Amino acid sequence: MKGFFGSLQGTMSVPDSHESRHDALAGRALAMLRDRVAVRTADELKRALVVAWLAGGTTVAARCVQEPGPLRNAWRRGDDKTLAELALEFTYPMMSRWFRYIKGTVGGSPADRLRTRRGWMRYLLSRHLRSGLERRLAIRIRLDSLFTNDCEANLMAEVSPGALGLVSPNSLSVAEAAALTEAHLSASRRTGRAATVIRMDVMKGAVSVSEPFMLGMRALGICGRLQRFNRHWDEIAFTPVRPTAELARLVPSRVWSLSGALRLAAALDLGMAAMLRSLGELPVPERPVAPPHL
Questions:
Q1: What residues does each domain of the chain span?
Q2: Are 126 and 133 in contact (CB under 8 A)?
Q3: What share of the chain is helix, strand, coil (3-state, %, to 5)?
Q4: Continuous segment of H or E residues that includes residue 152
């Protein structure tokens, strides 16, 4: 992966404002990732999907380094190379949300649906990896399964930290998903009460945030924060139903916690909104879109 990111290092000129600097980094990282990943995709619809996923991932990364918390502390005044790595890390959960919620994105048997998601993840990984593709793909598939586990657990609990967590799988058009996500984000900005209630449910174990918990650990690893605690952080790929004591022992709670995972879940909602806005009025067929041939 070093070869792909090497050319991103130290190439940006950014304004003095802290927030503007991060926005500029995110925009430039998205442009570079789009040029290196999406431009190679010839089909217009498939290219638009890749760009939308990247837009979502970049939005999440920018949010994480803007908001006070463990990820911003880990990134500090990091460079565009690290931000681009974070953006790609958060691009895959955007794909998970796309295939979970949007009507017609997957179909057939469970094996067929997994084959579609796996094919797209393999395609995106192949655009920027030079080695270790199969191991990275296995991690991505496990994290995708973890997201599904979260959704199913939270459906049973009838409460979820995610904007669309209680919606039936593959039941929404792009416009419907965008409207529901924006309504959720607007309500959260106005009151903040729902987040407080959910935080208590998460701490009591009634609500699962395993996927953002693991994603946050990986993001901290990308920023170099986990090296002293667990040098093999990039090889952690098991999928508990929710964060367990065993999982929490991999990283001290002062470094990463369920509270941090809950904040990341909110950032992932912002990414999902950006992903859906990126698609705009593009007609998405109500049938699975196969990944491009490698």
A1: 2-279
A2: yes
A3: 65, 0, 35
A4: helix 133-157
pLDDT for position 19:
60
Collapsing DSSP states into helix, strand and coil, what is residue 102? strand
Q: Which two tokens stand for residue 125?
A: 């990984």
Cα 269–Cα 223–Cα 163 angle in degrees, nearest 5: 5
> Which segments in the chain show pLDDT lower than 50?
1-16
Give the 3-state secondary structure of residue 192: coil
Beta bridge partners of 102: 172
Q: Which of 211, 208, 206 is nearest to 145 (CA)?
A: 211
d(CA 2, CA 270): 28
pLDDT of res. 8 = 41
pTM of the model: 0.88
- CB 33 within 8 Å of CB 83: no
**pLDDT recorded at residue 68:** 87
Report the distance separating Cα 47 and Cα 51, nearest Å. 6
CA–CA separation, 94 vs 154, rounded Å?
A: 19
Q: How far apart are the C-alpha atoms of 129 and 265, rounded to whole Å? A: 27
Given the structure tokens 């959960």, which residue do they identify? 93
Please tell me the distance from the alpha carbon of residue 63 to that of residue 266, in angstroms, as a whole number: 10
